Amino acid sequence: MVTSLPLSDLPDEEKSRRAGSFGDVAEHYENFRPGPPKSAIEWMLGGRVSAAVDLGAGTGACTRLLLGYADEVTAVEPDDQMRAVLTTAVPGATALKGKGEAIPLPDGSADAVIASSSWHWMDQLPTLREVARVLKPGGTLGCVWTGPDPDGAFITQARALLDTATPPPDADSDTSVTDLVMNDAGRPASVLSIPDDGSVPFTQPAFETFRWELPRTADDLIGLLGTFSWVILMEEATRQHLLSEARRLLRELLGIEGDVTVDVTYRADAWRATRR
After folding, report:
1. Fewer CB within 10 Å: N-end or C-end of the chain?
2. Residue-by-residue pLDDT tens, the chain, 276 positions
3. pTM of the model
């Protein structure tokens, strides 16, 4: 049975396997995973800064936005294939191999560190300590997770229609394609949480939500589905079955195929904390 458990329920080995899966679809990820809106970046930064770090930068969706708000932008990404795409896509930034728990930058060298759809993959306490080392006093740690809004009109309509869908005769009775397709519309379980015992020098985080709409075709929606780690790691036949069924449901239940678009509400959940 195919399953997509929340990250908080995964053993460390499986979480590490998922975290390392994105490089295999780096170009696909660049094409189909939207980054956060500018409004979220502006809110996290609070104004223009001298030096910003995009931590767990992926292929650079957030990095390219930071270039508009910082004099120098450094993208830190552990995966070689993701970082290679970033280097080509965002030539104005400096791309370095590294991770949250080991940032390849000097002490007190950054005004802001932003983690976009990456914080939940990191070991929280060691990363907080490492970010504190890199940040100047008064610097900002921002975290944002971006994806389709589970409360948006399209997702709400799609879920209602999918709940009434009849699976095809050859469907795997142990696997609900509906559940699998809709699962990653939810937010990750982990958020920016600062221990209140003084073990790391950060204020308690502020939180804000940003919503906007994007017109999406069936190819866009299927492409997005293919960027989730639990889909990437499926056996090829299982993955193709899932994507084929998702496309069928979009066509037959929602009338979305070819050049037809639907406005999908996206949501960015953002946190910011200040280094004391």
Report:
1. N
2. 344 455 666 788 888 899 999 999 999 999 999 999 999 999 999 999 999 999 999 999 999 999 999 999 999 999 999 999 999 999 999 999 999 999 999 999 999 999 999 999 999 999 999 999 999 999 999 999 999 999 999 999 988 887 776 555 455 543 455 555 555 544 555 589 999 999 999 999 999 999 999 999 999 999 999 999 989 999 999 999 999 999 999 999 999 999 999 999 999 999 999 999
3. 0.91
